[in-house]
Amino acid sequence: MFASSSHPNPPSQPPQPAVPLVHIRILFVDDDADTRTVMAKLLRRQGFQVRASGTCEGAVRSVQEAPIDLLITDFLLPDGDGLTVLKKLRAIRPLEGILVSGTDVPNAGSVADLASDHFARRLIKPIQFNDLIKAIHETLEVSERNRVRLASGIPATADRDRAAARVATIRDKVKAMTNDELAALVDMLKRRGDDLKEEMLVLSELLSSRKTSPQPPRNFW
Question: Of 109, 140, 157, 171, which residue is most buried, by most CB within 10 angstroms?
């Protein structure tokens, strides 16, 4: 997960958060036991309360036993993936998450890219510990802003604007894909069930519109 094989040292002068770290509870999810041990130790040195799990099921069980404030999770897990964890935990209580994913996982890159939009931050392996600490601070600030926004009420126009922006973002992520690649991605999303249902519907509509639109002539020379 880290940028080098040696264990990283925590930053000597970590970024100062706008949200106090006192009593911040983090759940770190990764299927590698050594990574879980090292990360839990380093994060505790920064003042966080940390629990760790190696599976989706273990993460859900942990939060059912005691609440958390922030999820940090790897994408690929033995019994699911990071988005599955996030959605199951959000069904228990509202929270933000940080996704840690790689770029060298066969057939998972596009799904991870779409899934990352459900997280406050995404980090690409290998990561630097300073970058993780910065992402945690930024995510806690996002969580606090969302809490205030929900408490004050959300105008309907703001909801519509966010929905339109979300559709545009999804379409932009796949604009370079061929129709065959897009169709394969849509099939993959369908097999996931409801986890990425919004993305699946948007991309299915995009694929249909491509198939009914005139295709530019191919240049064979």
Answer: 140
